[in-house]
Automatic annotation (TrEMBL):
Protein name, per record: Transcriptional regulator, LysR family
Coiled coil: none
InterPro entries in the record: LTTR, LysR_HTH_N, LysR_subst-bd, WH-like_DNA-bd_sf, WH_DNA-bd_sf
Keyword DNA-binding: yes
Naturally occurring in which organism (per UniProt): Aurantimonas coralicida
Swiss-Prot/TrEMBL keywords: DNA-binding, Transcription, Transcription regulation
HTH lysR-type domain ranges (all copies): 10-67
GO molecular function, one term: DNA-binding transcription factor activity
Domain of life of the organism encoding this protein: Bacteria
Origin organism lineage: Bacteria, Pseudomonadati, Pseudomonadota, Alphaproteobacteria, Hyphomicrobiales
Similarity section: Belongs to the LysR transcriptional regulatory family.
Family annotation (PANTHER family): HTH-TYPE TRANSCRIPTIONAL REGULATOR LRHA-RELATED, TRANSCRIPTIONAL REGULATOR
Family annotation (Pfam families): HTH_1 (PF00126), LysR_substrate (PF03466)
Length: 299
């Protein structure tokens, strides 16, 4: 008998529930996602801890957080889910062909698109994916016109359009470390093009705080904003993940108002194909993998 046959097996349902808890930050919300009762979810996690002979959660009153073993297992659980999905899809979708047109802004695209395409290719290898990189405003118009099957975008508003929020991140003020742009009046800004949520959030915050500013630079790509900041010509509102040395976060100490989170939405055209729906599922899953592990709460 091999050593592997003596080890217990982890059911995919246990891994799925564990990942759902980590993604939603709550046992009760995870229960809704996996269609179980909260008590059943708790029993599943007790069983999982017994199989691994490790505590995965530290319980503190009504909240819980992952232990170091829990954080380690999260990576394995996601890989188990990906492998299960890839294996099943490999046989159920074999022979499916077609074409899907997918849009993303450059600024969002480089974060998640490689993972999205990799996952989709593993389950639908015969499907052609046409990727369009445009501004969020352009993507919204293309989706409305039926020229895109689906798109991820970050617009200031969506009207009556049906969208699914797939990612949120803190928006922060960024300036050059030890730079002088922050001290200039009126405050010089490097902003995204009109229609981008980052621009609207920043201007609304400055107007509400009565901060005098001028729009010094506009760009359809975040690299254009970052270039102006690196040259110490302006400051810019950027996702927190974009602010790395030699840039630094600015805030109340520099007289700047706080910025709210921005959202990345998934938009699909009406009547899109089953193949496009499958790609949409990979989009949601790929962005979920980007999320930092939240503080978990029983709610």
């Amino acid at each position: 008998m091999s050593r592997h046959s003596q080890l217990p097996l982890i059911e995919t349902d246990l891994a799925r529930t564990f990942v759902a808890i980590c993604d939603t930050g709550s046992f009760s919300r995870a229960a809704d996602r996996v269609a179980r009762t909260p008590s059943a979810v708790s029993l599943q996690m007790k069983k999982l801890e017994e199989i691994l002979r490790r505590e995965l959660f530290v319980r503190e009153g009504r909240t819980v957080r992952l232990t170091s073993d829990g954080e380690a297992f999260l990576g394995y659980a996601r890989r188990l889910m990906d492998l299960n999905e890839e294996t099943v899809s490999r046989f159920l979708t074999q022979g499916i062909e077609g074409r899907v047109v997918f849009g993303a802004p450059d600024d969002i695209g480089y974060i998640a698109v490689p993972q999205i395409l990799k996952r989709f290719a593993s389950t639908h290898p015969q499907v052609e994916v046409d990727v369009k990189l445009r501004s969020s405003d352009d993507l919204r118009r293309l989706c409305d016109a039926g020229e895109l099957d689906l798109a991820v975008l970050a617009c200031g508003e969506y009207g009556q359009r049906k969208v699914t929020i797939v990612h949120t991140e803190n928006l922060v003020w960024a300036g050059l470390k030890h730079g002088g742009a922050i001290a200039r009046e009126p405050l010089p800004l490097a902003l995204a093009s009109r229609g981008c949520a980052w621009r609207a959030i920043a201007l609304d915050a400055l107007d509400a705080a009565n901060v005098r500013y001028r729009i010094a630079y506009s760009s359809g790509h975040s690299q254009g904003q970052i270039a102006a900041v690196l040259a110490d010509l302006a400051i810019a509102p950027l996702p927190e993940s974009h602010v790395t040395a030699p840039l630094q976060k600015l805030g109340a100490a520099e007289g700047l108002p706080p910025l709210r989170q921005y959202e990345v939405a998934l938009m699909k055209r009406r009547g899109c194909s089953a193949v496009a729906d499958a790609l949409a599922e990979h989009v949601v899953a790929s962005f979920a993998d980007l999320q930092p592990t939240p503080t978990l709460a029983f709610a």
